Amino acid sequence: MKTNNITEEGKKSSFSKVLEVLKTMASKPSGFIGLSILVFHITLALISPYIAPYDYKAIDPAMMLSAPSSEFWFGTDDLGRDVFTRTILGGRTALTVTFFGSLIALLWGGLLGIFCGLVGGKIDDVVMRVVDAFLSIPWILAMLLIVSLLGTTTEVLIPALGFFYGKGIVRVARAATHDVIAKDFIVSARARGHSNFSIMWNEIIPNVRDAILVEGAMRWSWMLLGFSSLSFLGFGVSPPTPDWGLMISNGRGLMSFAYWSVIAPIVGLSSLIIGINLTADAFAKALGIDRATKAPV
Amino acid sequence: MFEIIQNVKNLSIGFRSKKGEEILILKNISTNIKKGETVGIVGESGSGKSTLALAMMGYVKHGLYTIGGKCEFNSSNLLTMNSRELEKIRGRKIAMIPQNAGQALTPNLKIGYQIDEALQLHSNLNKQQRDEKISELLNKVRLPSPDTIALRYPHELSGGQQQRVAVAMALAGKPDLLLLDEPTTGLDVTTQAHVLELLKFIAKDTGTSMVYVSHDLGAIAQVSDRIIVMYSGEIVLEGPSRSILKKPIHPYTFGLLKSIPKLSLAGLPESMPGSQPQPGSISRGCSFYDRCNFSSDKCKNNSPDLEYLEDLKTSIKCFNYKNLMNDNEVNQNVKKINTNSQDKEILTLSEVSISYAKQKLLDQVFNKITDDNPTVKDININIKKGETIALVGESGSGKSTILKSIAGLLRTKDGIITFDQNRQLPSDLKLRNPNELRIIQLIFQNPDESLNPNHTVEEIISQPLKLYFGLKGEELKKNIIELLEKVRLGEFYMSRYPRQLSGGEKQRVAVARAFAAKPDIILCDEVTSALDVSVQAAVLNLLQQLKEDFGTTYIFVSHDLAVVRAISDRVAVLYQGRLCEVGPSKDVYQFPSHPYTEVLLGAVLEPDPDIKPKLVAEDIVEEKPPKKGCSFQGRCSRIVGDICKNEIPPWQLTTSGNSIRCHIPLKELQKAQII
Lengths: 297, 675
Fold this sequence. Notes:
Chain A is mainly alpha-helical and 297 residues long. Chain A is built from eleven helices and no strands. Classes of the chains: A mainly alpha (297), B alpha/beta (675).
């Protein structure tokens, strides 16, 4: 009886493991709320082009800055565009850019971190000092420099954000690797004569994957904030593309008499960030990683 | 005198599983502790012994809860008290000494300050009185120069000293009851003997009652008046320690005592089959039924009650104890090991030195190691094909360091390691070819650490098979199954993860992985010290069987002299990275021996209250080997003069082929040691 149970558990597919993690995450209120917000935003981003009531570019001077009504649910902005349409469309670019940006950050930061943790010694020293040097540069200045040199297209923004948000992951991945590297199964693999690549792939990655994924999820929410800040400063997406950062930037001067043009994008942006944060925390707890004790650098 | 201070009544503690079932960790425990008595609680890991001890101070671990019963201390139930009330009792009336004192002391506060804190909480003394009290306490636990110790930080003390400080802190509140949770488990043999001696003295001197929790029957035998044996959350036997250890009438205790290797007996002890039932497993019968040699049909479906035997003053939970009462003593049957040692040498270490010193810049450039006082020095050992040679010594003796060097994990400073008489092994792992890597395999101490938690057993064992033999598909699978059967695990273990296995099963997987490479030499680094006694015997038996089947050579590192006695053909005793004595194990365990071997042998704890450890030398810890002279000069009780301090002792050969490195002539050594 007992034997069978254990064997079944051993044979579990990775799909059912993912399902189980999701179930554990949703079992706590904070995880459930986070997941719901995230799912809502992703669904909205996918279907918004089909449900948007108006054309986001349509300018109507006659309807300039009209208050929320049954016709324009969230009112209109200074050019008479429908705020509701622009709000539900406004998360699309941000989500896409930051999602792929985080993936890049995860990939290069994680691999470099694991590599440094594994080889140690001089290479580790040199690489980590370079990473430290980059960490000391205010990212927004560097980003502004890159964007003004290379333009504000997605092709530039994704790798640039990916690079700047990956530096922190290097440290986390390296620390996680250090926890594993002292264990005897690594010593055993070394003594057998496995190559560094084989040790990294077979022995280390399965053990640090969870920690890095959680870190990547956190970076995603920070990157969203960063991306929106760039848009706010006018270096993110170019008008007339709807984007929350851009909308907040446009509407902020009119806040005193047309609050509706900023409220909606603010709610959109902050709810998404909160959602990702809660999800990442629940994710960490479901995987058994305590973020309180393993604070990322 | 014998008033009861702690009374446990029908205590059940458990947790709720994910499915909502109530799972019991402690099942209806009733016992008591009397004033001034020392009670030992023994059991294997998972038997509930620590949970019981913690409940005795009103603490139930997070996730567990009390299902029924009570723990009364001076007639008030600790388990229903609020934290305010408990505060008044903990530390003042009941104190606890944890297993690892190094972790229990705050690393950034001085020893004196930490004891002072305990005194401030639990006494009304003023500053000056407290300072005096600190010295007095440190003196009581026999720490040298208490005033300087008080000014040190925990990391500046050795493990034994830290444990003494923990004892001093516990004594600060003058407790009536002292709970000790495996207080000597992480310590060296000699230190352990000294700490136990101290605890015994304190129990006698202060009249404190003690509850001593341990898996080590040897330690329990030394300190306790009464023993409680736990199995699967139940008390199976309780009674005076002498009768329990000399005439165990419960089959579990009987088997347990049989499976402990003894110094006086060479050969492998019998192992107890099976393992403890998992918490929550349902059976109507006796929990020990599956592993019992004395069971009858009645045991299968009926669980015996704890029965009190007036004449023996013993409580027992067994239907068939009368069958065991006729046996006078535990007749230990040991299986003599077959030496298949051949004359051909398989591995030779000559003049090996290993240094941990940091390389200077210039040396780094020329890739040299310069250190005039290396951690390990002058190691000359010839290892014969098919033999088991044991390296013995306390922590810091360099035994694991030598293993690492043989495996190529640590570069040697000087010296040559030769395989098969003519092939010199490069000291750097990266310079060894795949075949040179294959012939030497390692088995580690702790299978939790040596098996990747995210790999299945199949993946773990397939690693060496893929790496060295390039096996794939069906053939790979066939080999894995074959290996699993060799270590007595079935095919169905393939898909399991290490966390789903018991300690013994994990170690078997690690053994299978080592044998997968078809090695000539296997390095065993304390392979049984993380295992329960009954499992230890089984693993030792397995290793011996595999050795006989494959003709493998073992280099066996251990601090446990009894285990070494059981399995090894030859023993090399190390102190501070220098060899003291090398010889056939039957001779090393006899006098004359090197003064250090004498110390080690004297400190071994046997599960017999009549055999007391002999404490020959102080348990001081030396940081570094002495630059000249004998390595053991700092602790030797038989030092003869300046010659020991200045000259490296010569090797002296006994008639039986045992080499001892000492300045004292063998005859005098023998004479002195017999007295």
